[in-house]
Each structure stands twice: as structure tokens, then as C-alpha cells.
Amino acid sequence: MKKLFPAQEIGSLAKPRWRVKGYRGEQLSKEEKAEAVNWGRKLGIANLSELVKLLGEKASSNRRKAMLEWSAKYAIRFFESAGLDVVFDGEQWRSEMYEHVIRKTAGFKFLGHVKSFDYRYFDKAACVDKPKYVRPFYFDEFLFTKENTKREIKVPVTGPYTLVDWTFNEYYEKKFSGEFGDFKRRKFEARREFLFDLIKEVIKPEISKLVGSGAKWIQIDEPAATTNPTDEEMKLFVKSFNETVKGFNCAFSLHNCYSNYKVLAEYACELQNCSQLALEFANRDSRQNGIGNTRKGYKEIRLLEDHGFRGNYGLGVVDVHTDFIEPPELVRDRILHVVKMIGDPSRIYVSTDCGLRTRTWETSFKKLKNMVLGAELARKALK
Amino acid sequence: MIGCYLTGILPRPKELIKVTRAYDRGKANEDELEEAFENATVKVIDTQISDGFSYVTDGMLKWQDLFRPFTENLSGVKMGGLARWFNNDTFYRKPIIVGDVWRKKSIIEKVSYTKHQPKNLPWKAILPAPYTFVQLSENQFYTDETELMFKYAEVLQEEIKGLARRGFKYVQLSDPALVYKPTATSMASDNLNFIGEALKLAVQGVPVKTCLQTFFGDFSEILPGALNFTVDHLGIDLYETNLEKLKKHSFDKGVALGLVDSRSSLVENEDELVTVAKEIVGSIYRSKICEVFICANCDLEFLPWEKAEEKMKVISGVTESLKEEFS
């Protein structure tokens, strides 16, 4: 992209109440219908009366499909109206980044809820058979997005290393039982085979369909990349990324967040065909304006540079876990600080730290608008 | 003696999860939440009794994480943000040390359910060990980590004595940071001596049996130094430990063998576990066999309750087979 500091999002956007209830086939309140109409007007969505009619209809598979399309259309317009240069559909077709893939793939069984923290839980699956590609899980969503925007598209894809890390590995551990005297070695070998089977049988076939239909940029989401920070595991992660992207005529990038970048920095250069590292930084940073010591949240960029990473940065300048609206001047200073660190402004895409699914649409819109304004201020400052 | 017990927090059964979620969303009140905790506690205690466990815990269902009762009840400690719990997809709230650490009241009493624990079986409590507490806290007050570690060890000693007065017979100190590779590799042998000293202070004069339970890392890496720790038993995660290296050492104290994998839903083959346990016991006890406990390698809370229940049956089955072997 020729423009300096193009603005992008990472993936998810909250699902509005009318989308959630509409998809489930539940009755909507007046307020919820009004929310759909008000945002529709604000975003310049055409044929709103059709949506209102649909929201009053009985539950059916057609209504569910239509709800996905309407909410995706809203999300695309949302990002465009905020001024982003690179967009997707806010992952409106996906229940959640993990479940969406696992539920549409054969070989998995959900076992129940385990604790994440406090009173929060997640539904965890076990791999009970060799994973098998049954039907596309991102393809239709991509086609819809492609038909509904003229902006550059970045398709977020949940990475295989994360899918494996978040899944119990019954099938492969059973397969390897008795093969190694050492439990630790057995688990590692079982994990390795699960990972590369998943890449070969499921992830690559889906990427192949996306690329075959015109996807030009795919972002591999790997929040678990540094969960196991040993050399053996990090090498496994790198190998899994390289195998995932190998052989496709498409740009790839990696998104990682709330992780140990000291560990990631050591291995980032080994990632092949990885044009961008989209990382969370704003969450670690102060809210004061300025360049230099104030910008403590961006210090790990130095580690990445020192280890020789020369790709682009998807620079997290907006914190997604707070309602604080970053002023454009703060966004500008975060960008200019990193320009000073790396010397080459063309390597920076401005970005949110992660997906915006935990923020309201009102908050997300303000945050994105200011992110775009901050990028504009940074461009002016460099003129 | 061959026995078995739990080594950490149990998963919350479905019914309890439902109420905690409702509570979190403002759709259940304090009384309903408390009733759900009580019912679930009775259930997990009954399971341990019917599985023939040698020591019984209350399942620690109310513990949000291993440190939470300490971050909430110790003077000089405040609750920080969420941080990843080692290499797991679970999180804990970081204890922030902001002042002199001291025990103003019982730390775990409010989250314990001793009233439901059986009168005819000994009780076990589980607390964070000094090294792990220090490694996973953020020290903003003491000049160095050693000072904090010894201060916390004093607190632990008071707490363990309090637990003994309330009827507990066994206290486990959980010490994953001691063996978890990214934190343990930087540990010099001098550090191991300091850690041993802090541990000694924590258990000095306590009238209960004690165990230092390690997990998420290779126990053989801290041998033979760990054999000098002044605890009755040493707990070993057999899914992270190099078994051949382990078998080369000779033990003169009891062990808790983490033979069941809490981080895998695959239910283990009992015969295989019996064989592995026999090999280890035969190797590390060359003259006289000390106390051996069969257990999960770490907290079973990484599994849904139904799987944990199955795994507890495996622990029980393996223990019974070993009792026959070594009787």
C-alpha cells in the first residue's frame, strides 16, 4: 500500500443484540429493532425496511443465513465509515474463533466447560479421530465480504497451533500409547502429529479455497504462539506457520497478543512469507502523549528489530480492553515513536491491539475514528 | 504405605458452573451461589470418600486461583491484573506486594468447607509454596525477592499451624515455578539453598505432614538438591519429568507420584500406570520403601468435572493394585 500508515482492524467486532437474537430466532424488543435501524442509517445501509421485516419473521434457516449477511454488511460498512483501509466483516459469521472451526470439522467432540478464570469458562473439545475437512468454514464469509467492499481485504484465520493448544489430544495420545517410555516425549510427538495432520487435512484445504477465490491477504491468528515458551515448542510453532502458508500465492501475516514478545522476537525471523506481525502494544503503554520514555509499551519492538525482523508491523495503537477513547494525538505519538525506533515509516500499519468484540459499537467506532485521525496526524508530522 | 489424594483445585461440576455464570450476570444472588458451592462441595467430597482416598480435601471449588485467598486476605498484598497460569489457557490474578506482608487473620478459612469434610478421614489442605508465590507476584515493596520469600514463609507457618488447630493432618505446598523451565533454568544452586531454607521456615514446628508438590516441569532437574528439602514428601509431575533421570536417584523420603494427567482428557490405562509406578518405586527406594501417594500430576481443574471423576477412579484403581503388589 502506497499510503503511509494504512489503518486496519484485527478481526472481531461485537455482535449486536439484533444479530444475536435474530439469528437465534428470538423476538426482538422495540429498542433492539431501533438499534438496528439507527446504526443502519448512520452507516448508510440500503433497504433497511427489508431487515425490519426479516426481524419480525419466524425462525428459519433462511432467516439465520440472512442475519449473518445483514450483520456482515453492517460490520463492513462500520469499518469503512470509520475510515479503515483494510477491512473484513468483523467475524460476524463466526460464533467464536475456536468453536467456529472445531464445530465445522470432523474428528472433534466438545467435552464441556473448563475454567478460564474466576467465573468465566470455555467449552473445550477433544480430538477423538483424525481431523477431516467436511465443509468450508471461512469461504462463504470471504465471498460475501469480497462482494460487499472495494477496500483491501484481510481474512483472519485461526491458526493451527492455537487450535491444537486449546484442544485435548485424545486420538493421537492414544495412538502413541506404549510407543515411548517417557510420557513427556509421547505427548510431544502426539501433539506434533495432531498439528501437522490438522494443517494438511483441514487448514490448508480451506486456505486453498480462499486463495483460489481471490483472497490476497490472510492473517493467521495465533494467540497461543508463545504459551509454551521452550525452544522445542517455539520451533514447532514456527514450523507449523511455515507449513500452513507454504505454496500459496498470497500474502500472510501473523497476529499474536497478550503474549511474551521476548520469546516471539527470537523466532520471528524464521517465519516465512510473513509480511506483517500484528501485535498488541497499546495495552502495555501509558496514556500520556509524547515520544520516548513515555512509550514503554512499545519497547519490545527493539527486541524484534535486534533479532533482525524487517517485515511490517500491525502496530497496536488502540487498547481493546478499555472504554478509554485514545485521542488522535496519542495515536500519532505512538506511531511516531515507533517510526523513530525502526526508521522506516512504510513498515507500519496502524491497528487495534486485538479484535474489538468486547467493546460496544459506539465505543469501537469512536476508537477506530480516532485511530484513523491519529494516522493522518502522523502523516502530516512527517511531511 | 501406599495411598492416594488430590493435588489441587477440582473442576466445578456443571450445576455449579451454571449458578456461577448466572451470578456473574446478576441473575443469581449470594445465597443461591453459596448453596451451589455447598452442594458441589458435598459431591466432590463424597467422590473422594467412595474412591478410597487417604486424605480428603474440600475440592477447593471456591478458589478462583491458587493465590486468591492470599491476595484477598494478606496485609501488604493487593490484587493485580490477569496473568497466564504457566503454559495453560487459564489465568490468575497477580498478587502485588505493596507493603509489609503479614497475616491479619486466617487466610483460607473463608473459602474452606471443613464442616462437610468427613470426621473419620484425615484432611488435606493445599497452599502456594514460597518460591512460586514470589515468582508469580509483583514485588513493589521489598528490596529483593529473598526477603519477600522469607516473609511469606513466616506467614505460611502461621497459616499451617492454624490449619493444624482446625484438624488438618496434611498440608501440600504447590511449587510449579520451581520446575517450570522458563523460570527454573535461571535458578542457580545457591537459589535452591535459599528456597530450601524458606521451605524449612514454612514447615518449622508444624504438627502435620507436609509435601512439596512440583508440576509443569521436570523434577529430575532439581535433583539431588530437592532431596534435602525439609518436607515429608516430594510431589512429581511424571508427564513433565524425565523418568530415566529420576530413576537414577535414591530417595529417603515419601513421594507423591503424579501418574494421572490432568491436562489430557484421555483416560489412562491402569495397568500401564501400575507398571510405571512399580518401576519408579523399585528404582528410587533401594533399601526401604517410604510412603507413596498416587495422584494427578496437577490440579484436575483443567478438565471438565466428568473427566476428572473418571481420572479419580483411575487414581483409586492404581492405588489398590499397588497396595496388593507391595503388601
Describe the protein's topology.
The complex is a heterodimer of chains A (383) and B (327).
Chain A: H1 17-24, H2 30-43, H3 48-55, H4 61-82, E1 86-87, H5 99-103, E2 105-117, E3 120-133, H6 139-147, E4 152-153, E5 155-158, H7 160-165, H8 170-175, H9 183-212, E6 217-221, H10 231-245, E7 251-256, H11 261-267, E8 274-279, H12 300-306, E9 312-318, H13 328-342, E10 348-352, H14 361-382
Parallel strand pairs in A: 1-4, 5-6, 6-7, 7-8, 8-9, 9-10
Antiparallel strand pairs in A: 2-3
Helix pairs in contact in A: 1-4, 2-3, 4-14, 9-10, 11-12, 13-14
Chain B: E1 2-4, H1 14-24, H2 30-50, H3 68-73, E2 74-84, E3 91-103, E4 123-128, H4 130-135, E5 138-139, H5 145-165, E6 168-174, H6 181-184, H7 189-203, E7 209-213, E8 233-237, H8 243-247, E9 254-260, H9 270-284, E10 292-296, H10 305-326
Parallel strand pairs in B: 1-10, 3-5, 4-6, 6-7, 7-8, 8-9, 9-10
Antiparallel strand pairs in B: 2-3
Helix pairs in contact in B: 1-2, 5-7, 9-10
